[in-house]
Amino acid sequence: MSSVPVDPQLVEETTALALEEKGKLVKSLSRLDMTLFTICAFVGLDTLGLVASNGPQGFLWLVLLAALFVVPYGLLMSEVGSAFPEEGGPYEWVKLAFGRFQGSLAAVLYWFTNPLWVGGSLAFIATAAWSSNISEISPGSAWDYIFKLIFIWFSIGVAIAALKRGKWIPNVGAIMRIIVLGLFSITVIIYGFQEGFEGSVVTDITPTMSVFLALVPLLLFNYVGFELQSGAAEEMKDPQKDVPTSVLRSGVTGVLLYAVPIFCILLVLPLDQVTGIGGFLDAVAVTFTIYGGAADIILKLVALGFILTLITSGSVWMIGSDRVLAVAAYDGAFAPFFGRFNARLGTPVRVNVLSGIVASIFMIAAVALFDSGEDSKFYIVLTIAISTTLLSYLWVFPAALKLRYSHGHVKRPYRVGASGNGKMIVAAVMTTFWVALGSWVAVFPGTLESLFGVEYDFLDTWGTGRGTYELLTVGTLVVIAIVAMIGYAMGAGVRRDQVTVPIEPGGGESS
């Protein structure tokens, strides 16, 4: 089963279990699938209101980060995703660059966000959208639990389904984003000419440090997802050609799908009427009055479309991140029980079910113990939980640069910079800086504000003192680290059954 590569730079040490499980993968993702998949991952409607609630500055930073973060990020992922198209992409890149244990930490951090995001933010926002626009659901009622559980397990069901079938849900989700946001934007233009524009999109746009530091983690969380498709890299039909193209197309589309509706929200609503969660649907309710008697029906349809986009956001991240953890497991970097792909479906069902259980437990705890998610401690844990994805990029981005040097002989169908490593270094440094800044602000809020002399009321912002906040956040990170170390220790037996394979030119792998 093993082979000896001619060039030591082109060798990878994997496991017998990995080769066995790779045999269950089926190539089913076309270039169009990958583009729609990434749009679905990249564009989340759950945060539109939160960004818009920061007014013109929110829009300004959204546009600036598109240039200063999204562009170099897309370049990095285009190179590494097309040069090393291996299942579990982010884990494999970090493993090749820094070793299995570092890959394990990155994989667990990358995965951990998503079950808590689905069982936390997405399920709660979907319930609020349903309750406000379609049929009231009382917080803490039986229907509250049932609705959220249906939401969670529908997302999980999409991830469990064979990718050749399950991919259609994210595809539909991407198209639904374009339809909903496109209809909204056109409606706003018509409304503006009929009723006037009462927003403040061009006033008070001078950037301030306080708004910038408050928005950084949220905007970065909005703008990640280019590498997610590489979680299923060996299920792509032609990743060497399709990864760069899909990143470019989804990046341009995604930035526009954020910028245009937020601009429109700020055109329509006075800032004091833009709420964090309801900002988008509030703007829909205001502008869709131009449709007269049909407005109520259209609003309900848009609310359903909004909920569908939330479901597909969760499902697409489950599809990608669950594969990353499963690959780490079959490579001996996490508990091997979770390294199995279902023979019939070709999906990591065990990790999918684990994600559903974690999401469900988190949701039930939030409703039962944290005042249906209103308790400040719930928001603190949720904030750090969804920030773990940002932390994982502290491994992923440097790995992309390291691979340029450590695996320089691997053919790169797309390369950042025609010659030399200068542009690659700049892209890696810029992206790593932004995620480091976002991670620090999420884990230690208020510290940079103090450094720059910005007033910051910690108790008013978080509803608790710094000691409690840091206990919850640092405690959460310690738990994640312990889970990663235990999982790595459990994979020792798998690692002993090691197989050496060549990394072929173009990033492929053979046995």
UniProtKB/TrEMBL annotation:
Subcellular location: Cell membrane
Its membrane topology: Multi-pass membrane protein
Keywords: Cell membrane, Membrane, Transmembrane, Transmembrane helix, Transport
A molecular function GO annotation: transmembrane transporter activity
Coarse class of the protein's main subcellular location: membrane
Full protein name: Unannotated protein
Keyword Transmembrane helix in record: yes
